[in-house]
């Protein structure tokens, strides 16, 4: 997606170059504006394209992650209520979607020399942290369930 939107041309090891959506510790409006300033006009256009395309992506990876969890859950004989599988994935997807939507709107304001709303940037920041934490939880859940299934499959017959 970075290649498709042109965002891949705007990567650096500089601290201000870290994309907002990957900052586990969050960010504020000053940090967001510093990132958008660092991108420059063409980079901001690439960022807007990326954010718009990324509105659909959470549903793709969320669906794939949930399908994988449900498959392993089924292979294990459905040991608990499936809602426990869907909850962290749903939180991840909703947080990611909210993050992208708010960042896109605030970037649009920034590009048009309108004030960036720090409250909305804070909403996006919390959504980013939530997304990353629950993506980790969902991934660990998948790894744990898969390991459980492998141990059962390789263990002595019942």
> How big is the Rg?
19 Å
Question: Helical proportion?
Answer: over 70%
Please state the structural category: mainly alpha
**Low-pLDDT residue intervals, each spanning 5 or more residues:** none
The N- to C-terminal Cα distance equals 46 Å
Order of helices and strands, N to C? Answer: HHHHH
Shape designation: elongated
Strand content: under 5%
The profile of the biggest β sheet is:
none
Q: pLDDT average, as an integer? A: 92
Q: Based on DSSP secondary structure assignment, what is the total number of beta strands?
A: 0
Number of separate domains: 1
Distinct helical segment count: 5
Task: Tell me what the structure shows.
The protein is mainly α and 158 residues long. It has one domain. Helix content is 72%, strand content 0%. It contains five helices and no strands. It has helices at 2-5, 29-53, 57-75, 83-111, 118-154. Helix 2 packs across helix 4 (83-111). The mean pLDDT is 92.
Q: What keyword list fits this structure?
A:
elongated; mainly alpha; 158 residues; 0% strand
What does this entry show, briefly?
The chain has one domain (2-9, 23-152). The protein is built from 5 helices and no strands.
């Amino acid at each position: 997606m970075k290649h498709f939107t042109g965002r891949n041309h705007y990567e650096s090891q500089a601290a201000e170059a870290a994309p907002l959506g990957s900052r586990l510790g969050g960010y504020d409006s000053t940090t967001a504006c510093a990132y958008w300033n660092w991108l420059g006009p063409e980079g901001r256009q690439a960022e807007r394209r990326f954010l718009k395309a990324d509105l659909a992506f959470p549903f793709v990876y969320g669906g794939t992650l949930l399908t994988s969890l449900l498959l392993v859950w089924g292979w294990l004989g459905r040991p608990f209520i499936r809602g426990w599988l869907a909850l962290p994935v749903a939180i991840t997807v909703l947080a990611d979607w909210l993050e992208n939507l708010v960042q896109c709107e605030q970037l649009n304001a920034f590009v048009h020399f309108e004030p960036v709303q720090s409250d909305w940037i804070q909403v996006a920041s919390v959504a980013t942290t939530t997304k990353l934490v629950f993506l980790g939880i969902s991934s660990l859940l998948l790894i744990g369930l898969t390991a459980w299934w492998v141990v059962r499959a390789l263990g002595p017959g019942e």
